[in-house]
Design a protein that fits this description.
With 683 residues, the chain is an alpha+beta fold. Helices cover 53% and strands 13% of the residues.
């Protein structure tokens, strides 16, 4: 039976890095944060019952001891005695794999990684925003844990209803989970943090158990051995007085053939490996790679120190070794940090505040000068032109102005648009009469024309009492252009134009519209509005909601009476679009302070139809998209924003489904079902 002091770096290997004194071998141990000390190999890299405790049956340590005596020790001796040059790849591969997998480094590094990750998750669960990201609350992807959970639960509870019904219900439940998350978060966080605390306590035990089971299955896993066996192996000798140290990770690996940026071998997957280095004694290293190694022998000790977790072993104490010891553990720390950073659960930055525009003017050389036109031309005025240029004199607007063909100052926006061949119905004519950003697709993106009213420009020029609001309205259009410029420059055209279901196409188009208004409001430079201004905004928004809600309700009744899907859907979507644009403007006006709406007339109207919680979620989604505008890479946020169309329609008993990608079907709840749905949405 093997003893209870069990070496995770066998003495047979350690002896190659020390000096024999009688029956014992003395080595120097360089430990992180300590002065180097002299010790017999009997007490180095050993721990009581490291592999297994006493047992009447053959233990894991017994198996390892047998493997050492019959396989490992003879192989180490043969490699040490080999001259510089090629060696047997089977022997080299087996030695490297076994020594790496059995080491204490494996346990220590895995424990460190697990602890850091759980600590990071604990930190993420201390804030609503980071917890949402950690739990993928706002992801529509089918692989999202929350989406999977909802779909599985609905299938088990409502398996008999049609698939379209289950899909609609899953979407509704997901939306409600997103809306109610702030209220659910404290209890959820407490439970999650308790679970993480229990896991943290169990990590050492779990790592030891997993490590022991892996070793018990295979002393040298075949797949790892085969990968290394395919390499060309050789012995490289250090020229005296140079020497090699033995890292606690035993072997280091590189992803490139020039052996730059070495990493502990046990932390690399087989596919990543381009080369491996393992010291076998103070004067020799074992090197494996595909082809001829490009290795800097003089820098190896620093790499060995960096790749160690806690310590390395040396045959001597000299200036070069002491210098290498200063880098002990750095690679492992960097590796753990990189794993944590990959999670990217930081809370989103709220970006610029609405008042910052007026404080950060660009220098004249940074400005984009856009042609200014007057309609009719008799209105042309140098003062008016200077007013508009001054209003555009902000860095946040310059990206948008780069895609603007002209700024048109006109007495009648509707007339100017129609003169350019733009078709406007009564609804769209009403929405553009105070100004608009007219967008045109071009081969390499989009271009815009900004239309502002002569009246608004004159108010600013003459210092009218409404000049502040008029200035914000004019800048609003440039802010909308900034949205379109941002999307065109950040999201590849092939992503935006990829084939997608018709409902998603409509959602994306609508999202473009209301997001542009949100950008316009956030970039208008109006700052924090006064209570009086908020009251006026509330009046306007509540009136818009009343009109939109009536229109959506009429669409529902039209469908009930006529079963004309096309007409009812067109009517419903038109009013939802108008409502979402009005809400985006309202959210932008309060600049992320959505709580200002809690005592408003508008929130009463929203609550009456089960949308009271929804506006906070809508504001969150818009704000997150706005704050991430410089790092956009795909359309997932826009698709998420477009899905708010369905959420609004549910509050009016209208459920959309997709029988085929190019079709949208509309179902309408009866009065009692609608009443029950709204009660659920109010819960």
């Amino acid at each position: 039976m093997a003893g209870r002091k069990q070496h995770f770096i066998p003495q047979a290997l350690q002896r190659g890095f020390g000096v024999a004194k009688g029956k014992k071998t003395q080595v120097y141990v360089f430990k992180k944060g300590q002065e180097p000390y002299h010790s017999s190999t009997e007490g180095v890299a050993a721990q009581r019952d490291f592999y297994s405790g006493p047992s009447d049956e053959q233990s894991l340590d017994d198996k390892i001891t047998t493997y050492e005596s019959m396989v490992l020790s003879p192989a180490i001796v043969a490699l040490r005695e080999a001259p510089a040059g090629p060696v047997d790849s089977q022997v080299a591969a087996a030695v490297v794999v076994h020594l790496s997998i059995r080491s204490g480094f494996v346990r220590g590094s895995f424990s460190a990684i697990a602890s850091e990750m759980l600590d990071y998750f604990s930190g993420a669960m201390k804030s609503n925003e980071t917890a949402r990201a950690l739990l993928e609350v706002d992801s529509l992807k089918s692989e999202s844990a929350l989406v999977k959970l909802i779909e599985e639960e609905i299938l088990s509870q409502f398996g008999t209803i049609p698939e379209s019904g289950r899909n609609a219900l899953a979407k509704l439940v997901h939306f409600r989970a997103r809306e109610k998350f702030p209220q659910m978060f404290p209890g959820l966080a407490a439970m999650f943090l308790q679970m993480l605390s229990m896991l943290l306590e169990k990590i050492p035990e779990m790592v030891v158990s997993g490590h022991s089971k892996a070793l018990d299955r295979d002393m040298a896993p075949a797949l790892r051995v085969e990968r290394l066996k395919a390499m060309d192996w050789q012995i490289v000798v250090a020229e005296s007085p140079a020497h090699f140290v033995l890292p606690d990770c035993l072997a280091v690996g590189a992803r490139t053939s020039d052996f730059q940026e070495m990493v502990p071998y046990s932390l690399l997957s087989d596919d990543e490996l381009a080369g491996v280095v393992m010291p076998i004694c103070s004067s020799k290293v074992l090197v494996g790679c595909f082809g001829n190694p490009e290795i800097d022998v003089a820098s190896l000790n620093r790499s060995f120190a960096q790749c160690s977790l806690d310590f390395f072993i040396s045959s001597q104490v000299d200036a070069q070794t002491a210098e290498a010891a200063q880098f002990l553990g750095r690679t492992v720390s960097k590796y753990v940090d990189s794993l944590v950073k990959e999670q990217a659960f930081d809370a989103p930055d709220r970006g610029i505040s609405d008042g910052e525009l007026s404080e950060t003017k660009s220098q004249p050389q940074d400005l984009v000068k856009v042609p200014i036109k007057f309609e009719p031309t008799s209105r042309k005025s140098g003062k008016a032109q200077a007013t508009v240029r001054n209003l555009m004199n902000f860095p946040e607007l310059q990206a948008g102005l780069q895609i603007v063909e002209a700024i048109v100052i006109t007495d009648n926006v509707v007339h100017s648009l129609r003169e350019r061949g733009v078709t406007l119905n009564d609804y769209t004519a009403q929405t553009v009469k105070l100004g608009t950003c007219h967008v045109t697709e071009i081969p390499d993106g989009v271009s815009c024309q900004l239309f502002v009213t002569t009246q608004a420009v004159n108010m600013v020029t003459k210092g009218h009492q409404l000049a502040r609001a008029a200035a914000a309205l004019i800048r609003h259009q440039a802010g909308r252009a900034t949205y379109y410029a941002t999307v065109a420059s950040k999201i590849p055209k092939e992503i935006l134009q990829r084939p997608r279901p018709l409902l998603e196409i409509i959602g994306l188009r609508t999202a473009h519209l209301f997001c542009s208004h949100y950008f316009g409001g956030r970039l208008s430079g109006i700052g924090r509005i006064s209570d009086e201004e908020f009251s006026a905004t509330d009046d306007f928004y509540s009136q818009a909601l009343a009109s939109c809600f009536q229109g959506i309700g009429n669409a529902r009744l039209h469908f009930i009476q006529s079963r004309d899907v096309d007409a009812a859907l067109l009517l419903a979507l038109g009013h939802v679009e108008q409502m979402l644009c009005a809400t985006a403007n309202a959210c932008a006006t309060t600049g992320g302070e959505v709580e200002r709406w809690k005592a408003s007339k508008s929130i009463e109207a929203l609550q009456a139809v089960g949308l009271g919680d929804w506006i906070e979620l809508f504001d969150l989604d818009l704000g997150r998209f706005f704050d991430s505008r410089e790092s956009l890479v795909g359309d997932s946020d826009l698709v998420l924003l477009g899905s708010h169309i369905e959420r609004v329609l549910w509050s009016f008993g209208i459920v959309l489904s997709i029988p085929a990608p190019e079709q949208i079907w509309m179902e309408v709840l009866g009065d009692e079902q609608l009443k029950s749905t709204r009660l659920m949405l109010l819960a």
